[in-house]
Amino acid sequence: MKTKQTDFDILVVGGGLVGLTVALACGQAGFSVGVIDIAKPSDQLADSHDGRASAIATASFRMMRALGVADALIEDQDTHAGPINQILVSDGQAGQAPSPLNLFFDAAGIAETNAGEPLGYMVENRRMRHALHQQTKKQDNITWIAPARVSDIAASADKTTITFDASDGESKTLSASLLVAADGRNSFVRKMTGIGVTGWPCNQKAIVTTVEHELPHGGIAHELFLPAGPFAILPLTGNRASIVWTETPRAADAAMALDDDQFAAELARRFGDFLGWVKPVAQRWCYPLSFQHAKTYIGDRLVLVGDAAHAIHPIAGQGFNMGLRDAAALAEILVQARAEGRDLGDGFTLAQFESWRKFDNTVLTHACDVFNKLFSNNFGPLKHARRIGLTVVDKLPPVRQFFMKEASGQVGDLPPLLRGEKYS
After folding, report:
1. In Å, how far are 237, 275, 405 from 60, measured between CA atoms?
2. Tens of pLDDT along the chain (424 residues)?
3. Which of 56, 87, 211, 380 could share a disulfide with 105, CB 3.0–4.6 Å?
């Protein structure tokens, strides 16, 4: 979108999934929003941009309905959101049958809390990105500034000013009451404003691709814990699944170097035959895995959201959901600030956001780290203990229900958007 507007309520740096969700949430609430991104929108919409798929928790998908994104995921009466009806968590070895001591989640077990919905939905990131772009174009108060590279940030008593290098080679400025950094785990804004991070490597890489299989998956997500890391089979629409295959860096690099036939054979060995024949139908991607958490989520007229604030292992499929909860909480806090006549970027407003989101994100970040270390090894006594642990949780309905409610985003203080409520 082209405009001569230079002053906004909110500037969002980063036009990815979380950044666009923040823009839509705030735009729907009536704020003027500018979205600055280093890439052209057309580049972001290319199929080769991102091969991942995201698990969208039930509460998060209610937010997507409220923002109109869920409707934008429907094409020719077919949705691109595949329901996750059940989750099977098991432990094993590649090429062998999983241990019978496992943990099984069924959406029917929390039907009353979940209003009969599935535990969540699987959506390919490329489809989500198209839907988000489609919705932002409908909002007159959301302006795209791309491609643009931020070169300077200066916060004053009443606004923050962003200097950026535009595609025409000129240096330009924009101002806003609040700056939102949604520019990923290597956030330029976070580094420029001097916010440090605590981080540690996982010594793992994730291989991501999409496969087609012979038999229907029934909306069942499989999380098989292997010694090097989890192997996840996540149900997409049709007879397709998104694969997140975690390995040591050396093994992941070797797998990526296989030719197509060899790679397909190795995938099939891990699958077994429970879905019939299996074949890759998409490009392969490989991502290094690590944990990272910003020491603070706020600065002078600045908030960090999504991976700019917290980046986790995909073991529980919660990374994107954490970013969506950031977006929903931020929108609600800004709406309350406006209603009380407060400055959107004042210290009290920003402290509320950090108080609301940082504790929950810290707990989930460390829990995912513990689970990954607990299951990504082949130590005999520990392997036996974790298999028994899975079975114990499976046999205790209240505990199992708590984990399902947590996974579907039904626990805690939910802002209106996560309850499916619109601001307009």
Report:
1. 19, 29, 13
2. 345 679 999 999 999 999 999 999 999 999 999 999 998 877 777 777 678 899 999 999 999 999 999 999 998 888 999 999 999 988 766 666 666 667 888 888 888 777 889 999 999 999 999 999 999 999 999 999 999 999 999 999 999 999 998 777 778 999 999 999 999 999 999 999 999 999 988 899 999 999 999 999 999 999 888 888 889 999 999 999 999 999 999 999 999 999 999 999 999 988 888 999 999 999 999 999 999 999 999 999 999 999 999 999 887 778 899 999 999 999 999 999 999 999 999 999 999 999 999 998 998 888 887 777 766 666 566 666 666 767 666 666 776 777 777 777 887 789 999 999 998 7
3. 87
Angstrom distance (rounded) from CA 251 to CA 201:
16
SS3 386: helix
Pairing of strands 33-36, 142-145: parallel
Q: What CATH number labels 7-77+119-198+290-375+409-419?
A: 3.50.50.60
Q: Is residue 330 classed as helix, strand or coil in its secondary structure? A: helix
**Where exactly are the structural domains of the chain?**
7-77+119-198+290-375+409-419
Residue with tokens 């998908």: 61
